Structure prediction request, 238 residues.
Amino acid sequence: MKRIACRCASLASLALLMAVPIAHANLTVHPMRVAVEHQRGAQVRVYSQSAQTQYVQATVKRIVDPATDHEAEVDIEPGQLDAIAVTPGKFALAGGGNRLVRVIPLSTVTEETAYRVYFEGIRGDANETSTHTEEGPAAQVGLSLIWGTLVHVLPADPLADMRLDGATLHNTGNLRLGVTTVEHCVTKSRCQSHDITHSVYPGEELQLPFTAASGDRVRVHYRLSHAGYRSHERELQP
Prediction:
């Protein structure tokens, strides 16, 4: 009886493994992050990883309170005037081919704003989809992956600025600060470097792992959305 129970348990485990959906990257996008400057759009290229034609739809979501504990994405309603638009918003993607998608600025923002553009396979007119199901005892259910490109929309008059208040770094400019490292110097020869790697959007603040006292010097190393991987540096005093 024990042998039968063990055999049944093994068969049940095998059945569960066979029923697990397997995700297939039927499409990829590049780049995963773009910056939209004032009156200048950006481009994203969508690549097919499938031999069959698939139909792709782009969905735009605005990110509220980005890089904070309250970060959330909200839908852009059809016909709603927002900072960006994506064209084409829906297209056929030939097997093994690629398609250029443009991100176009629609209105001017006063401070850097974050969006995410999602690309996913949808059902086409010819009932072709980016998912497939194979019948049989070892059926695998293909799940199309949804790719999201982060879009930074920049203001017309960009300004990177910050202020230090004890253990708090305030972003007082209108651009995102991609903080990478903060150095705390109590004397010219006594400095401690802290790797942080955190985005601080306009009006937001960052809690530092130390409290700067009067006479200390703090060097902030950061990157900007429109300057690629170029590093910037700002020295602050409390």
User: Anything to note?
Assistant: The chain has one helix and 19 strands.
